[in-house]
């Protein structure tokens, strides 16, 4: 797809917005109204603070969670959706309109839809049953046991009878049956759920506590009409032994998680359109009616629901009919599977269960998320639910995203709860959906953590996490969390149990603009660009189906090529033009890659036949089967015929087979295949063999190419970077300060531009190709960055001022730079806030007029933010390594006065107060640091190293020839 440049996004506009980002490219936030405890004063304060920091807007999110994992209670405010709450909500919209902020809100208190209004009729449902063995050959009149029920709700689905003779008994058990039936979520980090398609060795947990039978579906008798409304069965039973199965459904035990105050209750039935209608008309519509039409679709533009964290559910009132419509066959004869029995054989039983889960995913998509969008669009509003994981409920992620206006996901900063990348990063699926469906904004709940509070180091934790997900397709940050805290709650005030706390209460808020500006500058480019990828990966038709992080790379495209991921919904709508795969949104890919488990649906195989015959190249092993009963015997025969026709015998481990105008290839990765076809890598670092040390993303805007390049290591790196662009002048755009310069060092050859780059620890750079030049032109320098040489280290004593209002001792002398937490003075050891370092020094070198000079702070803890003044001149705020500023114009040969303001977080002062380290307490908060991330008590609270640690040096910066 080509993004047409108009008057708003010409190259000059891109430059202007990069250097001074427009508000529409600013960050957004999850604005927590914690336990409803907000005031008009606090609302106004927060919104004005957002405006001053160029926020795009905010998502109002009423929730609890303040007292989870060992933290303390806070006062209760108005209940969500009450008259008093709506008054505060209306006031927030009035203020947002005045300030020009775009607002959204979570249509629920807490994480999932539900609450006190949700009656059993509309709550989430699950299957329940009883069984009874009887001997036939006579009229049976028995009272059938009532299946287990919850919330005093139960409805029958069917009463079935099937043969229970000795020869029908089996020792086999369907493995992981509870998971295959959707009784539970399958983990919170986008797990690979394909194991549900197959059977495993007997699950030890299944046990042998009851007899399991293998049943011919033709012998399953529906005797529902033989049971009266009191549960008495009267049936003329044929001869033999029979198992009577009474199966129905009841409410799950799931309740709304992390909701505030009195907003407690059952989780809504996500598979029922009637349930969503009930919730909308009971909760959302009254809120809209109360606030009036003034803000709807103007100030209030988006609605949100959080990721699936409501456990399992596997039935709804209309399920049987919807299953028949969706899968094309009746499920009644297969219901004994839910009691553990095997219908026909293990393959057939697993195939039915796959169809069952796929139907659940379909109903969640069309009856919940599609319905949500339908209601929103009536008000000219959009939706941005986290509808695609990473918790693996009954979800087809890409399918659900098809109804979203903003593709919303999440990513985490490192914390004890989620320390590994595969548990922290989930953007790739959302960005792929945006690319495929033609949506511009890929948002994320950003910088989530569960663990120590206020201990985040921006350059080390937040920046590389943001950069990582920019490379996965993120283009709008929603800070998690920005908590509204009334002044009565003190400082740092009330906070959510999770997240990176970023709000006006944090110590470093006054110095936060450079951090926000960095994010906004990057977003100003990536929101406007069209993603470049060579590979489209199909991730199967199974449910749950939520894609993990980019570096899982199942297509084998990395490092050097990029990819999107898609599902069956989109694959069935693909086309081929000039040998390229084309989506309905006109996005093009060179190859389509299949999953490696050799399972496809018949519909997908039929579509592949069409695509390949028209010229597509498809990578993947010959499929062996469909795990589905759709089409039954005729479908299986057609599957085998098409597989043989398209792939041939496919006897070799590596090979290809031409079919029509296209071909199938197997036994190699996407990267290996593309290179074998002389397709140049889109981006590479010469000599690099790691998929993790560096990352990139490539966009185009008209004829302009934009590459974002990230160093994902703590080391400074000098690299030679290759870009698949030629005949265009490379430019270096620095998102830290908005500077733009033409690259002087580069080489062009064979369609590749090679640029030497210096990347700081966790550093990034944006390379823009816009102006056309001769493909024969070469750069006239060897390097694009300065070479820094230290010429003086500032040794000796410093005067350091600590604010006495926060327990500091005032002005003291440090004989050398040292960590505050090692200082014997408790007012310094437990200090939080800003300290001012002052030092007079003389240069030990003769300053040259033809040289440039730089001041470097070395190490700065714990947030890693400092502002610098030299000889009374403001040199700005530094927050990334190497904490360097240019001082050429202000450094003198005589006496110099250096002032450095260093800010650490609230952590040490809160810890000191919590441990009663000093007689007076200075902070007030619900957060308890004396617990680990699980909420278990800690023996000690380790302090966070803080202060200017140095060494502070002066360097020359020289250009190389």
Give an overview in words.
It is a single chain. By secondary structure, the chain is of the alpha/beta class. The chain contains 17 helices and 52 strands. It has an 8-stranded parallel beta sheet with strand order 16-14-3-2-1-19-18-17. Strands 21-32-33-39-35-36 form a 6-stranded antiparallel beta sheet, with helices on one face. It has a 6-stranded mixed beta sheet with strand order 23-22-27-28-30-29. α10 (458-470) links the parallel β18 (442-448) and β19 (476-483). α5 (273-291) packs parallel to α7. It is globular and about 110 Å long. The two termini are 41 Å apart. The model is unreliable at 1-8 (pLDDT under 50).
Tell me briefly what this model is.
The chain is an alpha/beta fold and 961 residues long. It is 21% helix and 28% strand.
Mean pLDDT level: 95
Alpha-beta content class: alpha/beta
> How much is the radius of gyration in Å?
31 Å
Pick out the low-confidence regions.
Answer: 1-8
The helix tally amounts to 17
The main sheet comes to: 8 strands, parallel
Measured between the Cα atoms of the first and last residue, the distance is: 41 Å
Strand order of the largest sheet: 16-14-3-2-1-19-18-17
Q: Which shape, going by the Cα principal axes? A: globular
- The helix content, as a percent range, equals 10-25%
Portion of residues in beta strands equals 25-35%
Would you count the extended β strands for me?
A: 52
Topology:
Elements: H1 11-19, E1 28-34, H2 40-52, E2 57-63, H3 83-99, E3 102-106, E4 114-115, E5 125-135, E6 138-143, E7 154-163, E8 169-170, H4 177-180, E9 212-215, E10 221-222, E11 232-237, E12 241-251, E13 266-267, H5 273-291, E14 300-304, H6 319-327, E15 342-343, H7 346-378, E16 382-383, H8 397-401, E17 407-412, H9 427-437, E18 442-448, H10 458-470, E19 476-483, E20 492-493, H11 513-526, E21 530-531, E22 535-538, E23 563-566, H12 568-571, E24 575-577, E25 580-582, E26 588-589, E27 591-593, H13 602-613, E28 617-619, H14 632-647, E29 655-659, E30 662-666, H15 670-676, E31 683-685, E32 694-701, E33 704-711, E34 717-723, E35 728-734, E36 739-742, E37 747-749, E38 752-759, E39 764-772, E40 787-793, E41 798-802, E42 810-814, H16 826-829, E43 834-842, E44 852-856, E45 859-861, E46 865-870, E47 873-878, E48 884-886, E49 895-903, H17 907-914, E50 924-925, E51 947-950, E52 953-958
Parallel strand pairs: 1-2, 1-19, 2-3, 3-14, 9-15, 14-16, 17-18, 18-19, 20-50, 22-23, 22-27, 27-28, 28-30
Antiparallel strand pairs: 4-13, 5-12, 6-11, 7-10, 7-12, 8-9, 21-32, 24-25, 25-26, 29-30, 31-34, 32-33, 33-39, 34-38, 35-36, 35-39, 37-38, 40-52, 41-42, 41-43, 43-49, 44-48, 44-52, 45-51, 46-47, 46-49
Helix pairs in contact: 1-11, 2-3, 5-7, 6-7, 13-14
